[in-house]
Each structure stands twice: as structure tokens, then as C-alpha cells.
Amino acid sequence: MYHLNEICNKIDEEFFLLDSTQNTFVDKITTPLNADDKSLVFISPGRTDKQELFDKTNAAIVICDASIDLTDASNKCVIVVKDPKYLFAKLAKAFFSETPKYEIHPTAIIHPDAIIHPNVSIGSNTYIGKCEIKSNTIIYGNCYLYDNVEIAENVIIHAGAIIGAEGLGHIKGPDGRYLSFPHIGKVIIESHVEIGTNSCIAKGALNDTVIKKGTIIDSFVQVGHNVLIEENVLILANCVIGGSSIIKKEAVLAIGAHICDYITVGEKAHIGPGAIVINQVPPGAKVVTRSPMVLTQ
Predict the structure, then answer these.
(1) What is each CA distance from 149 to 17, 65, 153, 189, 208, in whole angstroms?
(2) Are residues 127 and 83 located together in one domain of the fold?
(3) pLDDT tens across 122-140, in order?
């Protein structure tokens, strides 16, 4: 159970506090309508029913923005900030999230030449090749890390991810058979990157595949060889990034977007769901597909 003072001490942004109870404790997070007098909740500013949710919730602490009318808040403790959802997520992580223990599961297989910091968690049935893994990194079960993968601090790799396999770099010979191109590059993953379940990241061919700090990759994403993904990129599920492409910082790739080989997606560009990108994308651009049509009713 956490006192209001502990909650407020974790807030590192400007906020307004209305505390009508004077002695508030919370022991859970939930939604506004499921809350009781020990709950911490937030009200999303974008909801059309936000005032109704605020008025009806029984939560001990409500995080909201300044658009909420606080006239009838006599029995509530309210924290007013610019972005309620962001603060709620930070507090939830700080107080209500369980972090795996720093340990290597007995069923994991670790190459004898792997360099692994003591403060690392490696889940069941995971294989770690000749890799370097730095502190506070979590690798869940059933992952496979090939040789020449470098992982920085505070990285999270979810179950089933495969990192460091060769990309599809085959060349058709005169006899019609395909010859695989050599892959001698690394996969370099910088700090505070998160990689979703069953995502695959190919190692570089002659260059490295690099994912820079703060990037979030969802589940079932394919990243080709020699790809450079810059800082704070968001990549949603089922995206495919072709070889030697560059995704500039703070770009967003929505669900199912496909980036063809050698494409650069500009800084803060937004690629819409299902878009197939075959041309260079300038900074700040929005790329969308045509709206689907109903052919039969």
C-alpha cells in the first residue's frame, strides 16, 4: 500500500494536487468504473464521457487534466497534469509492476564466450550465443540470440524473439540456384529498447543492423539486414522493414506497414496501417493507403 506522499514524490513534472481526504493510500491500479477507495486511476482527456467517469469513480486518487470540472471533487484526491495517461503509466511501472529477478533460468543455454552482466534476467529455454549483454536487461523465455549480438542496458526482449539470424541475401547463379551472401555484421541494440514477442531482427551482411536507444518494436516484426533504426521510433505489430533501410528518429510505423529495401523514412514521419512504401519518405510526412471498399453487402 502506498501513501499519497510516495506517489507525489515520483512525479517529476508540474502538477496541481487537490487532496480532500488528507490521508490517502492506494494498493492497486484499475479503470475508473472498477475502482474502489484504494485505487489509482486516470481519466483520458480524449474521452467524450470523461466528466461522467470522473464524477462516478470511487477511486482514491484520480489523475486527470485541467479540462475536468473539479467542483464536485469533495471526496476525491485529484492530481492534475498535462498528460494523465503518461503519468499513470510511469506510476504504474514504479509501484505496481513486477520485474523479473536477475537470474539465468536453469533451462537456458549460454555460450561459454558470452559476456553477460550479473544484473540480467534470462528466461526459460532461451539460447544466448557469443553475445554481450549489459545490465538491467530482461530476455524472456524461448528467445534465440545468435553470435555477434550486442545489447546495451535496460533492454527488454519478449518471448520468442530471434535476433542475429542471417537475412535473405541470396544471389541467383547462372545455373538458376541461389547462393547465400555472407553475413559478417552484428546486431547492435542500444539502451531502453523493447522488442516484442516473435519478432525477428537479422544481423548485418557487411554492415551492422543497429537499433538505437528508446525504440519500441511490437510483436511479429521483421527487421532486415543492415537496417538502421534511429532513436525513439515506434514500430507496431506485423511491420516488415526491408534490408538496408533507414528509419529516422521518432518515426511511427503503424500496424502492418511494409518498408521496401533501401528506403529512408524521414524523421517524425508516420506510415499508416498496411502501407507498402516503395519511395523515400520525407521528414514529417504521413503515408496512408486508400480506404477499403465494400464490394458486396
Answers:
(1) 46, 43, 13, 8, 10
(2) no
(3) 999 999 999 999 999 999 9
